[in-house]
Task: structure prediction
Amino acid sequence: MIRLLIIDDQQEARNLMDAFLRDYHGIEVVGKASSVDEAIRLTIDQKPDLVLLDIQMPGKDGFAYVEELKEHKLVPGIIFVSAFEDYALRAIKSAAFDYLIKPIEKYELIAAIDRYYEYLKRNESFDYGLLIDLLKRSRPERIRLNTRTGYFLADPEDIIYIEADGNYCLIKLASGKTETSTLRLGNIEKMFDNTVFIRISRSFIININHLSRVDRRANMCYLEHNGCEYKIQVPAKNIKLLDDRI
Result:
């Protein structure tokens, strides 16, 4: 019997994968988590053999879960789930992990679990360190952001903050220029390293490499670049997010 944990921030996706596996002999779903912190607690408590792991999640993403697994010396098998074909999937494949692209079909999920059984038969282990290294090395230097007329390429280091503007986003660059992207803030959030880019409110993502000070009394953070200062309101409950990352 394989003990399996499902990790996805979307309830519909969690329930769908659970439903697909109900008739699969030899699988026991031991938990469903909507966040990395919840997933780590369940992993410690339930000790699953296999994890279905969504890559793009708000806050900590799927790779943050992998890094925390390594810290806790936990080694379940992992099948990654993604809505996007991007650099991360190339790294996953190179490290011999398995992955599925959303929307997932039942036969694809079953085939992936069958492949996991083959890993077990061959007594293969999952090298989390190799995966993390490949991800870091393959992360693109510049990120493509769609615009009304096409797209522009941005070096993450040059982005000071990203602000939601209706269905669009305003990208404030170190050059002082502001670009407008047709992507929503939630979609842009998934494209950036969440150890550097933090969503501090419903409307703002900031690059903490440009963070100069935080005023807890005024619930304000200040970003600075080349003598220019940018003041952004932070909900009181999210001030701790900044504290935890600095």
Q: What stands out?
A: The mean pLDDT is 89. The longest strand covers residues 27-33.
